[in-house]
Amino acid sequence: MDGVGILVLIVLLVLFAVAVMAKTIRIVPQARAGIVERFGKYKATLPAGLNVVVPFVDKVRYMIDLREQVVSFPPQPVITEDNLVVSIDTVIYFQVTDPISATYEIANYIQAVEQLTMTTLRNIVGGMDLEETLTSRDAINSRLRGVLDEATGKWGIRVNRVELKGIDPPPSIKDSMEKQMRADREKRAVILTAEGQRQAAILTAEGSKQSAILNAEGARESQILRAQADRESQILRAQGEGQAIQTVFQAIHDGRPDQSLLAYQYLQMMPKIAEGDANKVWIVPSEIGKALEGLGSTMNSMRGIPDDVDGPAKRVDMGSTVPDVATIEADNRRALADTHSAVEEAIAAAQESERGTRSPAAGDVPPTTDGGAGSTPPQ
């Protein structure tokens, strides 16, 4: 054999050795399990990592994924108890716990889970009406998971969770549901509006009530304070008038006026009489002295006013200048009554004396305020 033949033989031997090693050493990824068959019969399950098998005798037939898997199934028509067709799509969360059973107990466990899910879902929803189906997702999920977990246990599969992705009723039912939902919302809106108006009316009425009460209390307090102020003002005014009357009365007793004082007072009052708006013309008698003399003779007989006085009389003791309010009011009333009686008696006596003793003098012209022709203005 020449050198070329030897080289080819060496190469073939190397290739055979590589092929044998490839068939002997098998690497299984993490969370996977390899099912090994020997001459078509189950031999062993390879764990994750490096494994050695008999080449050309043992064969890794299946590689099973041990992780939790999620499978979404397309929508399936389901008839409810009230004969309405709804479309329901589901999502299944499952995990292979026994690779041997998942390989040899069922041909295709994903398809088996899908069909089992659809049949179980039809059984569960068939006993519910549409409204119960739409509002009982948790109950449907729990019942469906229990049935699937029990049925898939012998397949080496554990169903962890089942979820209903959507429940779609027919378009006509959707339209009716939307109308009903709209009506319910409008009803709630009307109720809430009425409740708001009711609360607003109640609050407004309570506010008006409180305002009226406060206004009434304020008016009452104002009237009370005004009445108290009027009472105190009247009391102070009465006290002032009483003191003024006492002062004037005391001054009259102290001064002891005579007829000359009365004549002087008459002269002082004449300009004030002429100041009236209706007094356009004032006539002054030519014999003013005789008029004053006649006025003095008229007042001669007035009680309590002498013709001549010797001098100031002894001062009358008036008592305390700040008496009690009740005492002041009583004294004021008595003083006013006495003054009115004295004035009335003096006027009556003067009139009586004038009628009996005095006759009008010839040529005397009484003063007048009638604004006639030929009158002269006051001096």
UniProtKB/TrEMBL annotation:
Membrane in keyword set: yes
InterPro entries membership: Band7/mec-2_domain (IPR050710), Band_7 (IPR001107), Band_7/SPFH_dom_sf (IPR036013), Band_7/stomatin-like_CS (IPR018080), Stomatin_HflK_fam (IPR001972)
SMART domains: PHB
UniProt cross-references to Pfam families, sorted A to Z: Band_7
Domain of life: Bacteria
Keywords on record: Membrane, Transmembrane, Transmembrane helix
Protein name: SPFH/Band 7/PHB domain protein
